[in-house]
Structure formats: C-alpha cells, structure tokens
Amino acid sequence: MASSNFVDYVKIFGRSGKGGAGSRHFRREKFVEFGGPDGGDGGNGGSIVLRGNSQYWTLIHLKYQRHIFAGDGESGSGARSTGKNGADVVIDVPLGTIARDAETGEIVCEVTEQGQRAVLLKGGRGGLGNWHFKTATNQAPRYAQPGEDCTEGWFILELKLLADVGLVGFPNAGKSTLLAALSAAKPKIANYAFTTLEPNLGIVEYRDHRSFVMADIPGIIEGAHTGKGLGTRFLRHIERNSILLFMIPADSKDVREEYRILLGELEQYNPELLDKQRLLAVTKSDLLDEELTEAIRSELPDVPSVFISAVSGYNLQTLKDMLWEALQKENA
Questions:
Q1: pTM of the model
Q2: Which segments are annotated as binding site?
Q3: Do residues 259 and 304 make contact, with C-beta atoms less than 8 angstroms apart?
C-alpha cells in the first residue's frame, strides 16, 4: 500500500486569510481645509475552497501538502480605497470527497458534482474604514474596524468512490476478473485472497453506445464493520454506489450463508446500505453441470440472481442486461 497511487484518506491543516483593517485616513489636500474622513475598507481574507474535478480519482496530491494557507486581505487606504482581497486557495478533489472536522468528526462539506465548490474555511471579512462612521455629531471619527481574524483547523478528507455498480464479495470471489472481462480496466488478478487492496473503476459498454461505471471494491471479511481486514476503509466506497452486485463463487460451501454474512456486514456498518438495489451473481459457474446448477439455484436468497463465468463469458450479457435494467429503475 505504501507505494500505491490510490489515496482515499488524508488529514490536512488549513488556515483562511485574515481580513484587512479599515483605514483611519483623513483627506488632506491644498485648498481643502476640512476634508473629512476618507479611510477605505480592508480587503477580505482568502478562503479555502474544495472544487469537484472528475479528472481526479485519488487524494494523493494532498498527501504531501498537509498545510494549506490562504492569503490575508490588505488594509484600506485613503480616498476610500479598498484593500486588495486575499487570494483564495482552490483545491481540486475527486467527486465523492467528504471533509470532516478532525476533532468532532462532523461533516463540513461534500463534493459530488463536477465544478461544485464547497468552502472549507471562509476568510475573515475586511474592516470598515472610518468614513462609514461619520455622523452629524461626529464629523471626524478617528477609529475604523479591524479585519476579522482567520479561522483554522484540522480536517479529514475521505474519498467515497462514485459508481453505478459496486461489486461486493469475499476475497477471491472473482470481482477483479469480472471487471477486467466487462471493461478496459486492468486490476491485479491472482489466485489468493486480498489481491485487490484498493478500489478499481471500469466503464462497462452496453448496447447502443451506452455505458455505466463499475467499481471493484476490495474483499470484505467477517467482522469488516469493526475495521477487521481494513474493512471500514473498504466499506465506505460502497456507500456511493447505486446498485450492489453481490458475487459468490459457485464452489462456496453455502451460497445463502455467505450472502447473509455479507449483508450483515453492510447492515452493521451502515443500515442505509440495505435500501440499495441488490443483485447476486454466482461466479465460476463454468465449474458446474446442470444438476449442480439447479441444486444451488434452489438454495439462493430471494434476490435477482444469475450464474456467470467471467473466464468463459457465460451469461455476461445477461448480467449486463440485469444491471442496466436495475439502473434504469434506480434513475426512475
């Protein structure tokens, strides 16, 4: 993991800019005996803003930039001249990024759309110049507002992948093999558990030049909701998927029981995940004869299911049809 380019969790420190002070200037010109106050306002401090960028897929660009500071506003000057605003700092982040307060855990903002801007820390307002305080009884105010102070804090940025279909299953269930078979993605594939240690995205081509996005989530193990096997890091990526495709190998001891365990892990992590549409794919079905297929089919849980083989291509088009139909139902 240390050498991976995929980073979905970073902790950063941010500080917005201070507002500039208002000016206490008085107009002083030849032949103008009582020029009066003309101090300008201070400039606003810069803000720290998160901006959604669909070209980004990881938070690695923030891994080595932990301290981010916006510019301070300049002070006002004579002739009612307003000070220059401090420069904002705009941070491009992948779609699906959540910012939390590191101390309270409270969600500060979420970025889910291309070009969306969310203010992480707002800059301080500039102070008013002394000409604002001129009254009939106080013609020469010798005071002005100071600018507002900056705000600062530690924040945790988490990335939850946005995808139409999320693949859910135990390690070595064939999720990466399916993604490679249906898309141009090239995830690491090997015959051992936890081959996939980071999510992979692939675009699945459908009929009439239509397509949808599929996410290969690292394998879940029993106890994942407590963090076992880096479970909570993996499970959060499922939250942003529209459809959940459960994948269980045909050579499992009990398909129904494995489905129950997977569903239980999702429920204990976040009960709202059970509101998502669920489909079941029994993988490695090229190992089965007709009799075994019927025996397993009679024991399947009550969800739309299909027997597939990513290696031989068996029923992959049927699977895509089922996923597309579920997505249309979800969009409707």
A1: 0.66
A2: 169-176, 194-198, 216-219, 283-286, 309-311
A3: no
